[in-house]
Design a protein that fits this description.
mainly beta, Jelly Rolls, Immunoglobulin-like, 2 domains, seven-stranded antiparallel β-sheet, globular
């Protein structure tokens, strides 16, 4: 497949020379078409590998009910034009049971798919495109599903050559039935299936009133010890033509990811996280505004060692927690002893460059 670039569909002055997906492209109106966030797998705030159901690179969930059959993580192996991919490596030759499932899943917020009008007579066609590479060949697939898992479209594609990047496009007629949320809940689940049992497989290229994940005959990546599967350049857009992948600026992509998850990592041993004052003798209360409005009031987790600096002294026996959550801010509290009411205070990492605080409003 030859690469299609923006320059190939625009003339030298920026004027359009063709029509794609029902509109005339220009430099400005080609932006914002990808419903997928972090399709190039470049944002990885958690920076960890997972072996059971969990979030991996930003906005992608390793979806499985059977842990320890493989590892999912960001990879630096990528096709030309990309830097990263999402990699799954099988850890055994596992025989998939009828109800098993393994895959990468991105839940797209309903507000971001409202223009598709799914569930109505005006439902728009969409096109899914991506780059994929595997040590295995054969039939692979996935599905698009609604939040209630009552509607699903199974798609399939073929990997023809092992250990070689291949570009895939799948065009899907919009669903005129079912309930597709246009709120801040899940609008569409996009599932890239690594393996699934018979109960989760069905006929490709059709809508179903059930919860299906992949096509009958799906190759099982977990069925071969050491098998690998890479994916990147994932794009879901309105229309029947796959346009060039939308490479957003790093800051734009990070901000989109931070609507759902934000990790504040120390990186140095005494990093300052937040400033405030001593609310009483046992609590230093600070405030942080979020860099972007989060999808909902988030949950809060921490890891590592923290301290409170106040009144020219450091209290190291501190427990950090958070309160007063809204989508735009929260209070971070350092609970300890010996504080002076009204004095300024800093919550900082205590000799721990790996300490972090995390806020999650994931779907």
């Amino acid at each position: 497949m030859s690469d299609l670039s923006v320059n190939s569909i625009l003339d030298a002055t920026g004027g359009a020379t063709t029509t794609i997906n029902g509109f005339t492209p220009t430099v400005s109106n080609m932006a914002g078409r990808n419903k997928i966030i972090n399709g190039g797998m470049g944002i990885d705030q958690r920076a960890t590998s997972v072996t059971g159901a969990n979030w991996t690179v930003d906005r992608y969930y390793y979806n499985t009910g059977t842990a320890s059959k493989g590892t999912a993580a960001q990879s630096a192996t990528a096709p030309t034009g990309f830097v990263n991919s999402l990699l799954f490596t099988s850890s055994s030759a596992y025989s998939v049971a009828v109800s098993d499932y393994f895959g990468f899943q991105q839940p797209i917020e309903g507000m971001n798919i409202s223009d598709l009008a799914w569930g109505t007579a005006d439902a728009k066609t969409v096109t899914l495109s991506f780059w994929v590479r595997s040590s295995l060949t054969g039939t692979f697939g996935g599905s698009l599903r609604n939040s209630g898992a009552a509607r699903s479209y199974v798609f399939s594609y073929t990997i023809s050559v092992a250990d070689t990047w291949e570009y895939k496009t799948i065009t899907i007629l919009g669903d005129t039935s079912g309930t597709w949320l246009t709120t801040n809940g899940v609008g569409i689940f996009v599932h890239i299936t690594l393996a699934a049992g018979a109960n989760n497989l069905g006929t490709a290229s059709s809508w179903s009133g059930s919860n299906l994940l992949g096509p009958t005959g799906q190759t099982s990546v977990v069925g071969t010890n050491g098998a690998t599967f890479y994916i990147t350049g994932v794009q879901l857009e309105a229309g029947s033509v796959a346009t060039p992948f939308e490479h957003r600026q790093y800051g734009q992509e990070l901000a989109l990811c931070q609507r759902y998850f934000r990790k504040m990592l120390a990186t140095v041993i005494y990093a300052r996280f937040a400033s405030g004052f001593c609310e009483n003798t046992t609590r230093a209360s600070t405030y942080i505004p979020f860099p972007t409005v989060m999808r909902s009031a988030p949950t809060f987790t921490t890891s590592g060692s923290f301290a409170v600096y106040s009144g020219n002294s450091v209290v190291t026996s501190v427990t950090v927690n958070a309160s007063d959550f809204t989508p735009i801010s929260c209070a971070i509290n350092g609970d300890g002893s010996g504080f002076t009411v009204g004095q300024g205070a800093l919550i900082l990492a205590h000799n721990d460059a790996a300490a972090f605080m995390a806020l999650s409003a994931e779907l």
